[in-house]
Amino acid sequence: MKRHISVLAGLVAGACLAACGTPREPVRQIGHAEVAVQSAREEHAGETAGADLAMASDKLDRAKAALRQKQYDRAERLAEEASADAELARVKAESDSAQKDAKKLQTTTRELRDEAERGASMPQ
Amino acid sequence: MDSLKRSFAVLAAGCLAAACAATSNPNLDAARRQYDVASADPAVARAGGTQLYEAKQELDRAERALKDGKKPEIVDHYAYLAQRRVDIARATADRGKAKDRVRTLSEERNAVVLDARTREADEARRRAALSELTAASLRAEVADLEATDTARGVVITLPNDVLFDVDRSELKPGAVTELARVAAVLKREPDRNVRVEGHADNTGSEAHNLELSKVRAEVVGSALIQDGVPASRVSTEGFGDSMPVAGNETSAGRQQNRRVEIVVQPAVP
Description:
Helices cover 86% and strands 0% of the residues of chain A. Chain A is built from five helices and no strands. The model of chain A is unreliable at 10-21 (pLDDT under 50). Mean pLDDT of chain B is 87; it is low at 14-20. Chain B has a five-stranded mixed β-sheet.
């Protein structure tokens, strides 16, 4: 019985340490978010997914602030959300850029085809 | 000892109470619904499979957090990440569609460009074949035509007897048809200039011969233009009796000298 209790006590202590003990600084998560925001910017997400990018950038700032205040859990959550927002912004921007390319291609192809037809029907 | 047991019981009860504190979370419910809708879309499931898998993991984390009685903000956090993963899966599918479209359109454009190039090459070949105009090819097209290859180009010689009545400068009806046939060939030669030269024998005054040969050359030139040869490519000149091709002593020689020559000059590149 005594043995059982000590095992149980150990478990509870362990759980408490994990939950309430000082968590490590979420440096990795913040770094990841930083990279994600940067690559979204490089895809010009500011133009096509401005709201998502702004949200990512804002959360990243708040994550850094929370880190300074040693609110590590909060910093980690904010950083993770910033990463997800930034990734969404990047994919949206890439999608938009591909759609623009498609539109441009459609126009040039039509022009080329018209030109070729005009050339073919020209009197010799 | 008893007090220890009691305190564990209290702890357990507390844990139970916390677990029962919340059994649902509206954000989690919304994320789950979004996940279900997106998973049912074959395009999203195909292109955003990885993202949907990650969304499912976040949903599971949210469920676990809810069951473990974690604070609502923790459940909200995982639900938010799940929701974002679903959004990214959709955006990935959109991006895939757009990229496929770009691929198809580039292929289409390349085909059009290739087609145009092939057509241009065919056209150039056709022109090159046509530009090989020779006396022989002219004779093949216009029967009984007297044509010679010279350094100046292909020279078509039309006897005046065929073209005009004596001392006249109106074309005979037969000549009109003959010139129309020649014009038909020349029309296909857009890169060649055509020079019409009038000649006479040495009977009569030199001035009269010169004038008549000039007028006759102009009449023949006009006929060619009338038949469709661009005027800008046709020039005319009269030489009188200054350039005989045979002796003027015999009537046969004089007949040869009375002529109009159409010089089809080499193609100008």
